[in-house]
Specification:
Arc Repressor Mutant, subunit A; ten-stranded mixed sheet; 17 strands; elongated; alpha+beta; 16 helices; 19% strand
């Protein structure tokens, strides 16, 4: 899509903090009744004065450092003036010409090809309230406002317009989310944790902004639709006007909201109630960043001897790599990586769970015990999967599940006896095997599995049968 230009404005709510950006209202509002986490400051009452949350600035500095941005020595807050029902003051406290940081970049992998996504700026601002529409935004007769979110600390990360496809945009957002989780500055599971405004244009046309997309999949869908819409307009000889559009997730279409504002329309000026902030002292307090994905990937490879592919997958989720490292303390690391990445992760994805939930449902110490049963040949591979699924769905202790379901593996001597019985009982299958129909051995393996109620190891059984038939 060489004719396509995409830039993103990503709004990250720093929701791991205790209070809002300029007041002491608690941030744990997500399950609370509407308009119960508010005060004169976040409601914009006359005379109410903002007090900056120092921890929010420190969290923002961590993000800027991780994104390789150039942090400014002094930052200033500004008033961004516009009128909208979710903005009680009639302006938003944000940053304009002296933001927290300029530049930075993120390296993404798209279909095996690495690409650098350059950033334009990173700044801090307050979140507006939330509008609830009675039906779709395009047909709703009225909307309701919840100001619980008003004043929550937001970090806006603006990219340069360097992305050429919706797939690149989604890859960038995925990489950014992973970095933010490692920095422990936000909880992606909470509603509104990361929202995206996407800017897209086709060569020769005006730039169109799509506002407030709430999911990565939604960003990709919105961009695909908008690119198709703009191309169709060009084919019809029509001009693409600069405008702001809304993504209707129910219909997977974008709809026009208003003409695109210019920067001067917001009439920025310095916030008179907040003094300039010296960032250097705060950077000293932040100190060293935690281990980030690329560093962790290299360490896992060196420390545990696992492959590049397994290390790359493990660091996609800090909780998954933490889980693996606990299991690898008592189980061969390569085997631990195989089972955590290939099997456990698949079972969690099937249930729509993450590894944070896995710590609760299947603690890594219990998973280690299960894998050791397998390595000691007490249960088969099939038995491991049976225990895994049972524990995730119904709970219980590993040893109790194995005992109750009679999953303890049968000794090789007993398997040998069962194999002899099956050979005697199935002369036709034996004759087929001798006639060159090698698949006949699969039938015989099945008969042994039937007799042992699945407790025999299929590979071991096939080997014993093959030896006997020779």
């Amino acid at each position: 899509m060489e004719d396509v230009t995409i830039g993103l404005e990503v709004h990250v709510q720093l929701n791991k903090l205790k209070t809002k950006l300029f007041c002491s209202c608690p941030l744990n509002y997500h399950d609370s009744p509407p308009n119960t986490h508010v005060c004169p400051v976040c409601l914009g009452m006359p005379g109410a004065m903002p007090v900056l949350n120092k921890e929010a600035v420190k969290a923002a500095i961590k993000v800027a450092m991780a994104l390789n941005a150039k942090i400014q020595q002094t930052v200033v807050f500004d008033r961004k003036n516009y009128f909208y029902p979710d903005l009680p003051k009639g302006f938003q406290i944000s940053q304009y010409d002296r933001p927290l940081a300029f530049g930075g970049y993120v390296i993404v992998d798209v279909d095996g090809v690495e690409k650098r996504i350059d950033l334009k700026r990173i700044h801090i601002e307050e979140d507006p309230g939330k509008l609830y529409y009675k039906g779709s935004i395009t047909v709703a007769k009225y909307s309701l406002i919840d100001y619980n979110r008003s004043g929550a600390p937001l970090l806006e990360i603006v990219t340069e317009p360097v992305m050429k496809s919706p797939k690149e945009a989604r890859a960038f957002l995925n990489k950014l989310r992973i970095l933010l989780e490692y920095l422990d500055v936000f909880d992606p599971e909470l509603e509104g944790a990361m929202r995206v405004d996407a800017n897209v244009s086709i060569a020769g046309g005006g730039r169109v902004e799509i506002k407030n997309i709430s999911s990565f999949k939604g960003v990709e869908k919105a961009l695909n639709y908008e690119i198709m819409r703009q191309r169709n307009l060009i084919k019809m000889g029509r001009k693409i006007e600069r405008e702001t559009r809304h993504f209707d997730e129910a219909q997977s279409i974008t709809v026009s909201l208003r003409s695109k504002e210019e920067e001067q329309d917001y009439r920025y000026f310095p916030e008179p109630d907040l003094v300039p902030i010296n960032v250097e002292e705060l950077m000293k307090e932040v100190g060293k960043l935690p281990e980030l994905p690329e560093e962790k990937k290299e360490r896992l490879k060196a420390q545990y001897g696992i492959s590049e592919n397994y290390a790359k997958v493990l660091v996609l989720d800090p909780k998954m790599s933490d889980y693996f490292e606990i299991v690898a303390k008592s189980v061969n690391a390569k085997i631990a990586a195989t089972w955590v990445v290939d099997v456990l992760r698949g079972e969690l994805n099937y249930r729509g769970w993450n590894f944070l939930k896995c710590f609760e449902k299947f603690p890594p110490e219990e998973f280690s015990k299960l894998l050791n049963y397998f390595l000691e040949e007490k249960i088969t591979e099939k038995g491991v999967v049976e225990v895994l699924r049972t524990k995730l769905d119904q709970g219980g202790k590993v040893e109790e599940i194995v005992e109750k379901k009679r999953l303890f593996a049968i000794p090789k001597s007993e398997i040998l006896n069962f194999c002899k019985e099956v050979i005697e009982e199935n002369p036709k299958a034996v004759q087929d095997y001798y006639s060159g129909k090698k698949q006949a051995i699969n039938f015989l393996v099945g008969q042994v599995m039937k007799k042992t109620k699945g407790r025999a190891d299929p590979e071991e059984t096939a080997k014993i049968l093959s030896d006997l038939l020779k």
